[in-house]
Give the backbone structure.
Amino acid sequence: MSTAMSAALVSAAGEPNLLYSDVEDDLRASVRELLTDRCTPAGVLARLDLDPPHDLDLWRSLGGLGLAGLLVPEAAGGAGGTAREAAVVLEELGRFVAPVPYLSSAVTAAAALLACPDGAPSLAEDLAGTASGETIAVLAVPASWTATDPFPGALPGAARLEGDGLRGRVTSVMDAEAAGLLLVPAGRGGVPVLVAVPAGGDRLRITPRTSLDTTRRISDVELDGQGGAGAARVLAVGEAAEQAVSKALWTAAGLLASEQLGVAEWCLQTTVDYVRQRRQFARPVGSFQALKHRLADLWAGIGQARTAARYAADCLARGAPDTPVAVAMAQSMCSEVAVLAAEECIQLHGGIGMTWEHPAHLYLKRARSSHVALGTPGRHRADLARLVDLPPPG
């Protein structure tokens, strides 16, 4: 994004302040201190062989700090923060590739629950449990689904609600293995519904799939008429269900950009530190002009990505009309910058960057999996063109 484009966006949005506030800086320092102590690269690498790989002790620590409930109002048991604060947390989680279901539960599922009409069965309990981190809630949609796709429960073969039980199958759901509560978009007699169902029922099966990023695995969820103690609860019906799912997916895509920013920043900083001390021909390899140019280009790209991610988070925090445009722009940019940064990190580390013991591959896998999560950059560019009335090429 050019300086002129940035200025135009800021002006059109009422001149929001995209700089980090003192509160956000303090929040970042607290989260980074926790993750530095509890989420080392060696620790994340060691968890890759565990089943499931989620660090639930770290998740409980994040919940104890109130971070799982940043998007939830205080009256509903949350911390009463905004998407701006959640974005700061996600930057740090991306910087450490933390194996916790923060994006799935504290962002996506929380946003869906907040968008449900008041008075839905046990909605207050679901929100409070999600905000405290005691309940890991997951929106059961395919990982690549976007807010502009059709309502998932309206498609052939999708989950359907029959009586108090759900039947059907949802593929490629992020973090389903860690879930205690599933929010399932379904159909009931042709009407969209959003249904909550406990994830531990006897007639609900969660089958892990081979995942590129094993710190954020995907699974298939099969529902076979679960009822009784695991009876499905309808949270929203019709247009309200569609809006709840759409709101959740816009929020998730917008804040995923901040996590991708954190991934890219770690890759750049780690690479700069390495080429400063790695010597060849009696001089640091970082002094070679070709490498300087590559790193300078990456630094500039990350700066542009930061602007886009911050603007998306600010629009989400304010509920700005420009939010879909900001989210599509942030995802178009941050997804590709994160992948480029991870690839450069591995290449410029040379042989050590290709080893299993070095954490660089964790960042490449997170960047690559996030590249397709919640919509590819190409899909978001197509949405962006439609949102700003750009005619198709040709």
